[in-house]
Amino acid sequence: MGGDYAPANVVAGACEAILESAGRFHLVLVGPEDTIRAAVRDYGRQPGTSAPAPDAYSIAHAPEVIDMHDLPTAALKTKRKSSIGVGLHLQKDGHVQAFVSAGNTGAVLSAATLILGRIHGIGRPTIGALIPTAKAPCLLVDAGANVDCRPQHLLEFAIMGSIYVSAVRDLKKPRVGLLSIGEEDTKGNEASLAALKLLRKSDLNFVGNVEGRDILSGDIDVVVCDGFAGNILLKFGESIPSFLKTKFKAFAELSITNKVVGLMVRNALRKVMKDLDYQEHGGVPLLGVNGVAIIGHGKSTPRAIKNMVFRAEEMVLKAVNTNIQESLASINE
Amino acid sequence: MGGDYAPANVVAGACEAILESAGRFHLVLVGPEDTIRAAVRDYGRQPGTSAPAPDAYSIAHAPEVIDMHDLPTAALKTKRKSSIGVGLHLQKDGHVQAFVSAGNTGAVLSAATLILGRIHGIGRPTIGALIPTAKAPCLLVDAGANVDCRPQHLLEFAIMGSIYVSAVRDLKKPRVGLLSIGEEDTKGNEASLAALKLLRKSDLNFVGNVEGRDILSGDIDVVVCDGFAGNILLKFGESIPSFLKTKFKAFAELSITNKVVGLMVRNALRKVMKDLDYQEHGGVPLLGVNGVAIIGHGKSTPRAIKNMVFRAEEMVLKAVNTNIQESLASINE
Predict the structure, then answer these.
(1) Which of A329, B83, B114, B226 makes the best surface tag, with the fewest CB within 10 Å?
(2) What is chain A's alpha carbon radius of gyration, rounded to the nearest angstrom?
(3) How far is Cα A213 from Cα A62, in angstroms, rounded to an integer?
(4) How far apart are the first and last CA of chain B?
(5) Taking CA A37 as the corner, what is the angle to CA A35 and CA A41, rounded to the nearest 5 degrees?
(6) Is A239 an interface residue toward B (CB < 8 Å)?
(7) What H or E segment, with its residue span, contains residue B231?
(8) Does B324 touch chain A (CB under 8 A)?
(9) Which residue from B228, B232, B262 is facing A268, i.e. has the nearest CB?
């Protein structure tokens, strides 16, 4: 029931994941039973689609919905039968191995931390975000979950981010950078300067401080920062496509020639915009909880939802959490 | 002598400012006398230009140069006859009313604070940066001078930024926003949450928290943040043009048709890139010191230098510093 286009987009994406995976996993759809059943039926009636076989999925009844306006922790208490609460309890009780949601990010983060618990040794679970670059997307971690961070938290983000990227991109040693205001080890704020020392001692492939200008080149795989700087950067990046549209539109209006060029450029622009569209990358991992939780954008398309399900599957198969736990144990020894 | 293309670009920009202003001000060029004299001669020999009349400018001899690799405070002590030191002392002693440099930002900031002193009531002088938007450029303040800030510092940045923008853009009440991770008053980090309360009580045209996505729309005139987040954001923004070039190039290489479209789009792109070029806006103010100092990009073009001189003139004529001082006095009463 999460997101602006629930249940239609979520159910459609789930159905596509079921059909495309051809039996690799069993999906449990969590929400008000009648609503979900109707949405599956609607999906099957669309031209060119068919509803998945009844034994490929099941429905877990969850009559309540936490929406974007609910305060996370309060909502978890008052709406005990929400799809977020019910879904995460299914994982806690071992009925499912992963949880995917396009719902209220704060609520999913709070609920997952509360219900699943933290991985031993992790002070703060974190949410990463994939930023499009000239090469592969770069994982920005933290993307807004933790605003004031201690150096140890930044180290944890780096470890978790590195293990996650290593798993989903099959990279042996992802390049990890610490976001700062200069490349030199003397540049940074109090927390980043202390974190730099911890990171230099870690066995990560740590490249040192990186600057805002180093992200889009795609030469860094994991960029570590507190959630305040991370969230500001992420949202600034998300606003670039509409800014460019405005700029090109203004250019096209300058003359008839420009208008013709503007029309010709539309396709090129659309393609570049698509690469810049953060939603295309479908879902970000919640790292540091005892379980797998993937959080998607509220405006997730069916395709994004499908990709989120596959990403969750990948996190389970590649045992991302076990790796995080082992890495932390070896550090704390 | 500041910047990557000194003295050529700096002298050329100064000469253009002298010629274009037609006697509105007298310029003092600070640097090794022979080098500067030769650069003025070189400028005058270029086709279509002529050296300015000898009485329109003078040269203050400063044989030493602080370069980008010098540590600011150390350099100020060891290189007492640098163009930065000599130039600022001319202002301190009342021989000039403003100082313009494309040199080492840290050195100019330290030297100006040390030599000119701070405006009474200002805890931390700040450097703002103009970010291109869909409308007029937005002043981001602080842009990297102060990484760890107390709430009071953020309030000071807001006041100084608002007065500066009001002067240079002839706006009665610039819209001031506090950079944060959500619009609600409950969103932010420790420092920003406390600063929000101070800003709500101020008589600025304060619109509340703004997010990373609110900058490029151009609906906010002054965006306040600490220098850590500000510098990261600024440098990320500066890297967008080359990222887009890479993306469009990749698009053009996909097919012959794309290549043709790519060629046609080149002009449109160049125009948009130019708007995105942070150097075009020429120089940022150092606010909070007892005097006028404009700092330019190390790669400043002659045009940028010329604009910096005009900006300095404007700050003097519009008594920006007097206004800052009066605003602070009224707050502290």
Answers:
(1) A329
(2) 21
(3) 45
(4) 43
(5) 115
(6) yes
(7) helix B227-238
(8) no
(9) B262
pLDDT tens for A61-72 read 999 988 777 777
Q: Closest by alpha carbon to B209, among A231, A277, A295?
A: A231
B267:A261 CB<8 A: yes
Chain A residues within an 8 Å CB radius of B268 = 248, 251-252, 258, 261-262, 265
Phi, then psi, of A264 in degrees rounded to 5: -65, -30
User: How far, in Å, CA of B112 to CA of A71, rounded?
Assistant: 48
Enter the tokens of residue A58.
């099941």
CA distances (Å), origin A45, targets A27, A51, A52, A56, B319: 20, 8, 11, 18, 71
Q: Is B226 on the interface with A (CB under 8 A)?
A: yes
Residue of chain A with shortest Cα separation from B258: A268
Tokens 């926003």 appear where?
Answer: B177
Residue pLDDT, tens place only, B85-115: 999 999 999 999 999 999 888 889 999 999 9
CA-based nearest residue in chain A for residue B69 = A184
Pairwise CB contact (< 8 Å): A232 & B216 = no
- Mean pLDDT score, B224-238: 95
How many whole angstroms separate alpha carbon A94 and alpha carbon A284?
Answer: 22
| ipTM > 0.90, yes or no | no
CB-count exposure of residue A214 (10 Å: 0-12, 13-18, 19+): buried
In degrees rounded to 5, what are phi and psi of residue A271? Answer: -65, -45
Cα angle A138-B211-A311, degrees, rounded to a multiple of 5: 35
- Considering only CA atoms, which of A127, A125, A62 is closest in space to residue A89? A62
Radius of gyration over every alpha carbon of chain B, rounded to an integer in angstroms? 21
